[in-house]
Automatic annotation (TrEMBL):
<feature type="domain" description="Ketoreductase">
    <location>
        <begin position="13"/>
        <end position="187"/>
    </location>
</feature>
<dbReference type="GO" id="GO:0030497">
    <property type="term" value="P:fatty acid elongation"/>
</dbReference>
<dbReference type="InterPro" id="IPR036291">
    <property type="entry name" value="NAD(P)-bd_dom_sf"/>
</dbReference>
<dbReference type="InterPro" id="IPR002347">
    <property type="entry name" value="SDR_fam"/>
</dbReference>
<dbReference type="Pfam" id="PF00106">
    <property type="entry name" value="adh_short"/>
</dbReference>
<dbReference type="InterPro" id="IPR057326">
    <property type="entry name" value="KR_dom"/>
</dbReference>
<dbReference type="GO" id="GO:0016616">
    <property type="term" value="F:oxidoreductase activity, acting on the CH-OH group of donors, NAD or NADP as acceptor"/>
</dbReference>
<protein>
    <submittedName>
        <fullName>NAD(P)-dependent dehydrogenase (Short-subunit alcohol dehydrogenase family)</fullName>
    </submittedName>
</protein>
<comment type="similarity">
    <text>Belongs to the short-chain dehydrogenases/reductases (SDR) family.</text>
</comment>
Length: 270
């Protein structure tokens, strides 16, 4: 009697999520674990990300400074050891708010190096790791990258650059590799809570209505995987408004005081 062939075990898919000790990154990682990915979570806070990995069932939690290009390659190697790397989420970021004149040189440098260079190094490492195969890169950007946002000038600039880089790299890559950016409005995270509640940036964020949840953005980000969509704004109407404002920044500047007053009223209401 001829033995029946044993079916080959399915190839495990692996994914990387940076900045995943908490907030949006953790939410993305939890969804990926639930969908069967072997997930490597990373964060500059090594102890916190190792605890997150244990709590959500990720295969590894790595201390990772996204400003270091070589560190991304190390993360990619770890992920490849758990299965074929098919998804990379560049989520790590910092959110120092304030006018350009108010930020220290250290804050400006950190915003640019973490929010922009960290994404560029991550995309490059992911593309190298994908090789001739397929894969998805999802960059966490922001609605602030789509138009003028006084009170977040440097932060917004890094997110605008992330959106631009996402579109350009998406056009550069082979058809089987897809590059996306998720651009949310204000999200209820520790980063938002740590900002100056009296600052102009906080007032403008709260002028747009409901603050979004981590779960909403995580679902939208993971939902980009496998699609041809390059930029997704959440909510859609706010993205359309930001794009319209960007066409007439001088006019928009005149409405800053009005939006800020609306946001401060929302903050007072709690």
């Amino acid at each position: 009697m001829t033995p029946r062939p044993v079916p080959a075990a399915p190839i495990q898919r692996s994914a990387v999520v940076t900045g995943a000790a908490r907030g949006i990154g953790r939410g993305i990682a939890e969804l990926l674990v639930a969908q069967g990915y072997a997930v490597v979570v990373t964060d500059v806070d090594g102890e916190a990300v190792q605890a997150t990995a244990r709590e959500i069932g990720a295969v590894a939690g790595l201390a990772h400074d996204v400003r270091d290009p070589e560190a991304h390659r190390t993360v990619a190697e770890v992920a490849a050891g758990h299965g074929r790397l098919v998804a990379w989420f560049n989520n790590a970021g910092v959110g120092d708010d304030g006018r350009l004149s108010e930020l220290s040189e250290e804050q400006v440098r950190r915003l640019v190096e973490v929010n922009l260079l960290g994404v560029l190094w991550g995309m490059r490492a992911a593309l190298e790791a994908f090789g001739d195969g397929s894969g998805d890169i999802v960059n966490t950007a922001s609605l602030s990258g789509l138009g003028p946002v006084p009170g977040y000038s440097v932060y917004a600039a890094t997110k605008a650059a992330t959106v631009s880089a996402t579109m350009s790299v998406a056009a550069e890559t082979a058809r089987r590799v897809r590059v996306h950016a998720i651009c949310p409005d204000g999200v209820r995270t520790a980063m938002l809570d740590e900002q100056d509640p009296e600052g102009l940036g906080a007032a403008l964020v709260h002028s747009g209505g409901r603050i979004l949840s981590v779960e909403e953005i995580a679902e939208a980000a993971v939902g980009l995987v496998g699609t041809g969509r390059v930029i997704r704004t959440v909510p859609v109407w706010r993205g359309a408004l930001m794009r319209t404002i960007s066409l007439a920044p001088g006019v928009a500047a005149k409405g800053t005081a009005l939006f800020a007053a609306q946001g401060r009223r929302a903050l007072r209401r709690g």
